[in-house]
Amino acid sequence: MSGWSGEGSIDIDLVLAAGKIAGVRIVNRRVLGGAAVVVGRRAEEGPGLISRLFSVCRMAQGVASVRAVEQAGRAPAAAGQEAARRMLLLGEMVLEHGSRAAFDWPILLGEPPAIGAVKALRGALTDLHRVIYPEGDWLRPGGGRLAPDLAGLTERLAAVAEALGLWVFGGEPDFDGREWKRWAGRGRTAAARLLARLAAEELEGYGASEVTPLPELSEEALGARMAADRSGSFLASPDWGGLVHQTGPLARQSTRPAVAAIIAEYGPGVLAHLTARLVELAACLREMRDSCGSLCDHDGAPAAAAAAADGCGLAAIEAARGRLVHRVELREGTVAQYQILAPTEWNFRSDGALARGLAGQPGGDDPAWRARLLVTALDPCVAYSLRVA
Amino acid sequence: MCLALPARILSLQPDDMAVVELGGVSKEISVALVDGAAVGDYVIVHVGYALARLDPEEAEKTLALFAEMSAAAP
To answer: What ipTM score was computed for the predicted complex, to two decimals?
Structure first.
């Protein structure tokens, strides 16, 4: 795919020698730089346009954008707005993780994907902002008019819990990973059967690498690095201090007891990745249910529109696939530069978590399947092609 | 992250498949996730699946934004 006809793709070529993956070549053809379309527009238009362009993960993109614009204008939103935004981010994480487990994971097993699960999750979560911001102004810098419909929100969360219980967890969505073997052995859902297959084929640690989780980064240092990135090479292939990192559910959940125990026993391979995603999925839904009632407890009044500002703003948020960073430069209230650093560029670098996780691994009877397993665990945000030679 | 270009459904195929026009290119995708997809509808496509139907006005606005982006591309 070329030009602007789509989202681009990631090409993965593996070379086998003596039954092992001897070479991994990754070419990231993702379309980068699309955010530049907001340059020259008024700052307050930016978040809406960014969210429209990147609508597959529009909550994360929209929240990162509106926070970056607010920081550039030195006009932060009230705590109530941030609580509402957190709810939207959690909803998108539940939608994405749930869709991976109910849709992508069955495909790995040769089972039909749970179309009903994805429909139910999308029906409840893709327009979650409507039950919190009835006027649809959630992307207004300073915040929109908050009027949460708690009954509507509760109803949606019940539908999500039911779908996840039926198609992902095979019971109450309270998975914490501690009893993963017993849970997998019962095999009630494709997610459980996939974990059981990993155990049966002793693939729990497949794809483990020394690529460490992306640490907290100083906003100042990150902003300086992005500002200096004239060629776009940092955004296309990021490192920090010369080191490659991974980002996503495993990086975020690696210190949870069950995930840490899996890493200690098998290494940070596919079992750790998949379990971390399930643990995070259950935790996000729990947080949504717990914080639902307190959405109205904070000061949520929208801030007045900022004066036409000069300045830079940076927002780093945890999106479903990992750390997402937006940086904006404003001049007299107009966007002069806009940059996005996305998680796929960390994980699918030519020498990142996928490449290093596959290099040297035994190919087994079906090396392409094993490679797809790790790609799915790392979850790129675009389609990919895989060739084995 | 991924750009989401609206695609227009040109024809419906068996097994919940459809041919769409995506940025001037015809492509076969699945419409299994979108109930009642019809010829002429705009959908958001991601990794070979239509994820959601867009109202035509929204789709046109988004396509105009992509066209602007395309014109500005080196």
So the answer is: 0.90
